[in-house]
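User: Run a structure prediction on this.
Assistant: Running it now.
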Amino acid sequence: MDLCSYFLGGNLDIFFYEAIFNKIQLAILVAAVGVISVRLFIQSRGTEGQRDRGTEGQRDRGTEGQSVKVSNFILVGLGILALFTYVRSKPFTPPTHYPDSFHYYVGSKYFPEIGYTRLYACVVRAEAESDDFSVKTKAYKRDIRDLKNNNVVPARLYFFDDTFCKARFSTLRWNTFKSDIEFFRTKINNHPPFHIVVPWADVQLDHGYNAPPVWTLVGGFISNLIPLSDSALMGITQIDIILLFGSIACLVWAFGMTTTAFAVIVGTTSATYSWIWIGGSMLRLDWFFMAILSVCAMKREHYVLAGAALGYAAALRVFPAVFALGPFVALLYAIYKRQYELKVAYGKFFVGMMISAAVLVASATAAYGVAANKEFFDNTKKHSDAISANNVGLRKVLTYNFDEKSRTKILETYDDVSAWRTATIEARKKVVPIYVTVVVIASFFFIPAVVSGGAWQAIALGALFIPFMWSELSGYYYLFLMIVGTLFAVNWKVAFPLLGIGIVTKIGLVFGMELGGFHFLFSAAICIGALVIWWQVNSFPLFWRQALSIFTARKA
């Protein structure tokens, strides 16, 4: 039962109740801005009052202490509300996301046979042997994405092809594969209320199974261990719920309730997609838990554990390796400045990270062979070159087409938005010089920020470099903003750019901005927000003031 059912009842259209929750989340973000603004205002008055040694100064300090308790209490309440508006369901009973589960369950279970390029082709070949004539007919007539090159091709190319798929299976495994495909086809075509509505034919136009061999090692163990059924998938979905609440427990352990509440608000309300896009699926939050554990362990000075956790996260999803960019820059600076304690801390961190990643990659290689790593590398390159409307990052900002009429015409005129994809590829080539220039400028904000903070802050600040990477992430991965939200523990002013990112994007959602424009808006907000946060937490302003004063003195 969804939360929306509690309050409104009935089988509501998914977009209707999504709009309701977006409005609630926008209200949460605005309320958080108000609470923090009042808190900082009272603190500033308290600072002025401390200059007065008399009764007035003591009264101001008493007011400040009371305001801290009240604001903390309100933030915790807003954090709890934000978490449940993100999840959108009763804890431990999320609706199963069948299209997503199909990719991860089938992709990992049959990885030795289908790898990264055969999933949809093998589905077609399996349906060619169906006893249901209508299933055969629909499979023969539809188009699928050819995962060798991401082109859309007629499914009939693989309808009678035994060598590409069936020959790679044993008889037992092939029969089980056909049974699993039938299960997912039935569930997706007969989706219950509140589920993502994606026709079975459209599922075959997605971009396939893309998880690394390390994730496949864990996911494949689970999918091969547990025979497919409704109850089995429901049990598997519980893992992500546990990981989500476990991540929050780690934050409380390391940062306390107030910072955790703020981080939850930022992470759950600023992301471009809600829980319905990744929740109810299979191990979508394992990387997130490990990344959260990393920054928490770093905060508690368990440096080897912090590195090992981030190494695991990177092995699961690759992009969390960028989080280590902050600690790497800080390590170089500590070596240059001969800061022994920081050198040891960062050294332990990277030892833990390298050992963890090496053990995991070696284990996956032993299970699937060296070729699996090369196939994953080739698949990742192919996948990163794919054009998707829900990608987020600096490239989105630089290549966005502001001509709405042109965008609309392209989408209406060409199948599979091929013209839009071609135009975006050409735009990417043209913006390379501008992209490099912006990244260099961003580095002048990023580096001073990292060397000005502590060890755990380096991870949070490193995470903010993600949108400046050339390879873009899908919007739902920006749940990692919860990690950035931990900077609230050392500087409450970072709340304003972080909450601003969420407010801007939620306004876009509430007012029905089209998909491309919405992701452009989020991309621009996250890039600007990152620059502002790096400026707020570093000593860069002091550096420039000193440089300016020296220059002025010399000129005089």
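The two ends are 73 Å apart (CA to CA).
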